[in-house]
Write a structure and sequence with these properties.
Layout: H1 3-13, H2 24-40, H3 45-59, H4 70-85, E1 100-105, H5 112-122, E2 128-133, H6 140-151, E3 155-156, H7 164-178, E4 182-187, H8 195-208, E5 212-218, H9 223-236, E6 240-244, H10 253-262, E7 266-270, E8 278-280, H11 283-290, H12 296-306, H13 309-320, H14 326-338, H15 342-347, H16 367-374, H17 378-382, H18 389-399, H19 403-424, H20 428-439
Helix pairs in contact: 1-2, 2-3, 3-4, 4-11, 5-6, 7-8, 9-10, 16-18, 18-19
């Protein structure tokens, strides 16, 4: 995500390396490169110019204090302004009401239907209902039903009814009757903005009075995404923007321009193909990632989506009793995989993104481990200590791996289990002492 933009900004800041003070000359040279970088990332020209003018005004004449280097001071100023450019604070998402009603809008191919499924999956505990109001695109209803089946969420549709306003109204009435906590209305899109489409989506909005009206846009379309968002907002007055396909080869222009041009917040971003691959949009976190600083808050948010408090307590009890087994291990692998692409997750850790930018981290990294565990009997998974030489040979044959790979996994698992058990019985002070000792 934004790799090219990040690299170009890093090169721009190198102008200040070794300088003792930020001056009008060196800051002008740096910001000239920053402005060129933003424009090449498809950021609106006026937005790019205003941004660099603001940074220049704040940077000129600043003294380097507290051993902070000019390059670091400039990065901080740029970070703060990037955050402000994208909205400053994280925008709230209104899901109050019984049911809460979410209306999706956007062009065909922007990812509305897929995002509807992802949002339903995100709020699965609210017992959501998906509503198929795209009565024009072939197989649109079927696509939503496939997604609904995949995540275990019902889909309301009326294939014989060609009036999307009525379908939406009937779906909400059905949701109230059956006790659904959220209704997500997927609407039709077009290949381009047209009057019929605008009238239809406006009529649906007026009829159902949604908590949130979201405009879904493909971030890979760059400045065109911003122009389309403005056209929709002029007619629909939506509440927020969803940027999809941020995991692709996006240049970042939409994320950096849309708030200023449209004056509406980005509320969600799609970061992959999996149903779990969406994040609330955090301007500060996105600025962190653009400047290769990681985004630990978003990483924690993804973890919280996968871990239930009751399950966590049960797992903690098993670890304390040294009963953590291969079934638990397999469950943890499954949760990690659902959090998103491994490289994307690693890049959220401060200092790691830049270090791994040229490293190929495959999402198939767990396949060998999973194959070995699946080749064990249920008893062996619960009691790894019984796996002797004969059993190891059978497991290796069954998993298509070598005896060495099986031995390596068993050794690593045993060491991990012992370490987890030891740490679970330590007091906070003991953990702190152990951490200090390890650092030495």
């Amino acid at each position: 995500m934004f790799e090219n933009l990040s690299e170009r900004l890093e090169r721009a800041f190198k102008v200040l390396k070794g300088e003792g003070r930020i001056t009008e000359i060196n800051v002008a040279e740096t910001l000239k490169e920053v402005r060129r970088t933003l424009i090449e990332a498809d950021v609106n020209y006026k937005v790019a110019k205003t941004f660099t003018d603001t940074v220049k005004e704040k940077a000129i004449g600043q003294n380097v204090i507290n051993s902070l280097k000019p390059k670091e001071l400039m990065i901080k100023i740029v970070h703060d302004e990037l955050t402000e450019l994208m909205g400053g604070e994280q925008a709230p998402f209104n899901v109050e009401g019984n049911p809460a009603i979410i209306l999706m809008s956007g062009l065909q191919g922007s990812g509305k239907t897929t995002f509807s499924g992802k949002l339903a999956n995100r709020y699965i505990k609210r017992h959501p209902l998906l509503v198929a109001c795209d009565v024009y695109r072939p197989a649109a209803i079927e696509q939503l039903k496939v997604l609904g089946e995949q995540i275990g969420v019902p889909v309301y549709s009326e294939p014989e009814n060609q009036n999307p306003v009525e379908i939406a109204q009937h779906a909400i009435a059905d949701a109230k009757l059956k006790g659904y906590g959220m209704v997500i209305v997927d609407t039709a899109g077009r290949l381009a903005v047209d009057e019929q489409m605008m009238q239809e989506i406006k009529a649906i909005k007026d009829a159902i009075d949604p908590n949130e009206t979201l405009f879904v846009v493909d971030s890979m379309t760059g400045q065109d995404a911003v122009n389309t968002a403005k056209a929709f907002n002029d007619r629909l007055d939506f509440d927020g923007v969803v940027l999809t396909k941020l995991d692709g080869d996006t240049r970042g222009g939409a994320a950096l321009s849309i708030r200023t041009v449209v004056n509406k917040p980005i509320k969600w971003v799609g970061t992959g193909e999996k149903m779990e691959a969406i994040d609330p949009f955090r301007p500060a976190g996105m600025a962190d990632r653009i400047l290769n600083m990681g985004d630990i808050v978003s990483l924690v948010d993804r973890m919280q989506q996968q871990y239930d408090e009751d399950q966590a307590r049960e797992l903690q009890k098993k670890i304390a009793k040294n009963k953590f087994d291969f079934n638990d291990f397999l469950s943890q692998i499954s949760k990690i995989k659902k959090m998103g692409h491994l490289k994307d997750l690693a890049s959220m850790i401060p200092g790691v993104g830049k270090a791994i930018k040229d490293v190929d981290i495959s999402d198939d990294a767990f396949k060998g481990i999973e194959a070995i565990i699946h080749s064990m009997t249920p008893y062996e998974r619960e009691h790894p200590e019984v796996i002797n030489g004969t059993r190891r040979q059978r497991i290796a044959r069954g998993s298509g791996t070598s005896i060495q790979e099986v031995n390596r996994l068993l050794t690593q698992f045993d060491q991990t289990r012992k370490a987890m058990h030891k740490m679970s019985n330590m007091s906070p002070k003991q953990l702190m002492r152990a951490g200090k000792k390890k650092r030495r």
